[in-house]
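Figure 2 data, in text form.
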Amino acid sequence: MENQVLTPHVYWAQRHRELYLRVELSDVQNPAISITENVLHFKAQGHGAKGDNVYEFHLEFLDLVKPEPVYKLTQRQVNITVQKKVSQWWERLTKQEKRPLFLAPDFDRWLDESDAEMELRAKEEERLNKLRLESQGSPETLTSLKKGYLFMYNLVQFLGFSWIFVNLTVRFFILGKESFYDTFHSVADMMYFCQMLAVVETINAAIGVTSSPVMPSLIQLLGRNFILFIIFGTMEEMQNKAVVFFVFYLWSSIEIFRYPFYMLSCIDMDWKVLTWLRYTVWIPVYPLGCLAEAVSVIQSIPIFNETGRFSFTLPYPVKIKVRFSFFLQIYLIMLFLGLYINFRHLYKQRRRRYGQKKKKIH
């Protein structure tokens, strides 16, 4: 006896963009589901209200749909999703006004139009938030980019100051004291580059890219660049003095340990020898560097007085000539004030790193 062709129970619900149909058939085999000329055709072998038979139905939709239905088989039913061509709310599912007897609302998924709009807005907001996060990058991606950027910055500075340090050391061993007097012409271009790039370090601290305090970084940047660009850079008479060698050598002596320490920190590495050098070398070298800077300022005062460079006369009726050496004397006071601030900052850093651990009280 041939199996009868029967119609299954079908339940439906909608959203603005989709239609959902639930066909009450279990153990479905060989489902044939398609859409042609805006009509959904369904035929499948399965167990329904009339037992194990071939069930089929046809539904002509109220409005246009996309002809690619998506279905999923479960043990108890067949779930079909159909995309509307235009996102809008339908007053009913089928073109014919009278609802087919086998068709009923799916109250498990049913929403009225206002609820569906709220759901649609929530989904759209979720989609926009996801796009916004993707455009901004995930926190892990941003952290990786920041570490990569800081690693490259510290690498470039390390290479620059290493070149200066090695150049001055080799020249001293070959030429002896004679190397002191042409230091500026040998390494000034690289020192200009490194000190201009050091502006980035202060900016990083100011905008929160690094956790370093701004003031010590700013004091060092302004102090070094004043010596380099004003005292040495504008006065040819200063460029041939031995003090240039000591200033440049002491600056680079600190940085060849500081920048590789920061590089390794970017990749979460801690080399104990380098860490100790980074927190210890400054103790003798930093005061010596400030002393060398002070000597360079003192040596430049008579030159600035003689040439009158950067000096000016106050306008009438005062008409007093203000020598640049007056500002240099003020700078000397500020130099040692900056030494105190930075020395205190570096000492605190070292104490946090190597401070004595409190003994436990029994």
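Caption note: The longest strand covers residues 26-36.
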